[in-house]
User: What shape does this take?
Amino acid sequence: MAGVIEEAWSYWETIRGDDIVPLRARLDPVDIPGLLSCTILVDVLFDPLDFRYRLIGTGMDELSAHRLTGRRFSEIPHIEPDGRLWSDHETVVRTRMPLMGTVTYEGPNEFVRAMRHGLFPLSGDGRTVNKIWCVCEVSRAQIVTPSRRVADRAEPPGR
Assistant: This one.
């Protein structure tokens, strides 16, 4: 079964049509209800290059220690211009092509083991990347609870 990133990639190809980069206006939340909670929409800022969180789906927002909507990457201490997250976004702007990768999770949820992201370029004019649609898959540790057998809970005879 395909994961959410593969589903997003297929949708991105559909909305791209014959354009080099699909128009942001073609990304319709009605078409992708199963992807909304794991969606992040990022503005691309130029001169100097930076990125700003425009929209963060509820599933992704819950994993963050702080509200990131409206914040620039350059304002967030653990996002470095020479780091993986920044460079992946920069690659998408430069190549105008989607990118999949694994990124380090920096947040309060101790059960998150890994994160994969798919970054999909979007445009206002069909050529220049001015937004990036990010879809994330989160791998979590399994929480194991001790099984309780009936015998373990039984009262001793005579009580």
User: Anything to note?
Assistant: The radius of gyration is 20 Å. Confidence is low (pLDDT under 50) at residues 148-159. DSSP finds four helices and five strands in the chain. The chain has one domain: 4-141.
